[in-house]
Specification:
Helices cover 33% and strands 26% of the residues. It has 10 helices and 17 strands. The strands form 3 sheets. The protein has a 9-stranded mixed sheet with strand order 16-15-14-13-7-12-11-8-17, with helices on one face. Strand 4 (79-82), helix 4 and strand 5 (102-106) form a beta-alpha-beta unit. The chain binds nicotinamide-adenine-dinucleotide (NAD).
Length: 389
């Protein structure tokens, strides 16, 4: 007779895009990774009872409720997974941490620096009591990106002089696309900058262990009014966030100390659907990555004799690569959804091992501060803004 495995009972807020992705992560992680606890998809939370019931059945949750406070107060729940829009994050996360629940919260951590600071405070107090928290920057869990980090940490790029991160989408380039919560500053905090720019900032911090020390930014809203999916569709509503953002940065500390960077986040890059491109150039080599080909990592080794140099493609599907030993035989590709499997695996392991997972709420706050500084610069004729901690 084997001993019964510890269970972690999950309640998840939000059942649409990220709700579906997180459900997949919780379901699949324990089937491919041997974990010290079994996640139980206990309760799914949303506002529309009918749609919620459909999601509960489709995504495999045991029960559903339309009030998130119920799961925060429920002693049977161990983990609160926040997969709802930015404006809900601070209130739910702080209540859940204070109630002793482990919290995984979607990015961006919050809609403002002030909210993020309060969340960090609650997370620090909770950690003292053994309660864990993590912000869900899932691209840290792409095997090729995790491999890039390993190579950078091993010094394969030498001293890093330049970093580039472009996150390009085009879903708003059609002015007929309806306004949703993502285009309302009160609900989303920021536009392309806070949504996909946040991934770019976090991934560069992850790869280099460096901090962004100063920025100069430009933001633009190209289409100022749209018909809305929120309420009356005949009415035109104001877009109150950026459609595109571009900024330069200086980096400090870590492995890219003294480097300069350029970042771009846009929902108007015609033809680009979900292209997240990274390029880091150092004295001994360079790395390139594009999310649209996420199993590949391009590496340039500048230490080879000049006549033998050139970018080479590493297929990041080998059993020695991060996360890959538990998947298919060498060479069989993974997809975008597997980042959520890895995210839930790492989160469960941290809870079981009684260690704080990463990225932490503090990491979420660091990204929030950069977003804030870029907005400040953009509204001051792109003046350079220093980030002092
Ligand atoms: N990591 C990623 O790659 C990634 C991708 C997309 C979105 N996100 C983030 O995930 C979060 C959610 O985005 P999404 O794309 O899933 O949005 P969505 O619009 O598809 O879904 C939002 C969900 O939240 C629910 N919700 C909203 N307010 C609620 C409340 N008060 N109580 C309970 N439920 C509530 C809605 O009913 C809906 O189910 C955002 O923070 C977003 O930035 C992350």
């Amino acid at each position: 007779v084997t001993e019964r495995k510890r269970e972690l009972r999950i309640a998840m807020i939000g059942y649409q895009f990220m709700g579906a992705a997180h459900s997949q992560g919780w379901r699949v992680a324990p089937r491919f990774f041997r974990l010290g606890a079994e996640p139980v998809l206990e309760t799914i939370v949303g506002r529309d009872a009918q749609k919620l019931e459909y999601a509960r059945e489709m995504l495999g949750w045991r029960t559903a409720t339309t009030d998130w406070r119920e799961v925060v107060d429920d002693p049977a729940i161990d983990v609160i997974d926040i997969a709802s829009p930015g404006w809900t994050h601070a209130e739910i996360a702080i209540a859940a941490l204070n109630a002793g629940k482990h919290v995984i919260c979607e990015k961006p951590l919050a809609n403002s620096v002030e909210e993020a600071e309060r969340m960090v405070e609650a997370a620090a107090a909770a950690s003292e009591r053994g309660v864990r928290s993590m912000v869900a920057f899932n691209y840290r869990r792409v095997p090729a990106i995790a491999l890039a980090r390993e190579m950078i940490q091993q010094g394969r790029l030498g001293s890093i002089r330049q970093v580039r991160a472009l996150y390009l989408q085009d879903w708003l380039s059609d002015p007929g696309t309806l306004l949703s919560w993502r285009l309302d500053r009160n609900l989303a905090g920021a536009g392309a900058l806070g949504d996909i720019g946040a991934h770019a900032i976090d991934t560069i911090r992850f790869l280099t262990s460096s901090e962004i020390a100063s920025v100069t930014g430009t933001t633009r809203t190209f289409v100022h009014r749209r018909r809305s999916s929120l309420g009356d569709r005949s009415e035109l509503r104001d877009v109150t966030v950026d459609d595109a953002a571009w900024f330069t940065a200086t980096l400090a500390d870590g492995l890219a100390d003294g480097a300069i960077g350029s970042f771009e986040a846009t929902r108007f890059s015609t033809g680009r659907k979900n292209s997240f491109q990274l390029e880091l150039s150092g004295s001994d080599g360079a790395l390139m990555f594009d999310l649209e080909r996420l199993n590949e990592l391009s590496f340039f080794d500048a230490t080879l004799p000049e006549g033998m140099q050139g970018f080479s493609k590493i297929l990041a599907t080998h059993e020695t690569h991060p996360y890959m030993a538990n998947w298919w035989p060498n060479g069989n590709a993974l997809g975008w959804e597997h980042t959520f499997v890895h995210e839930m695996k790492d989160f469960i392991e941290a809870i079981v091992n009684e260690s704080d997972p990463s990225p932490s709420f503090q990491d979420g706050l660091a990204t929030q501060r950069v977003i804030d500084a870029v907005e400040l610069s953009a509204s001051n004729e792109s003046r350079r803004i220093s980030l002092s901690s």
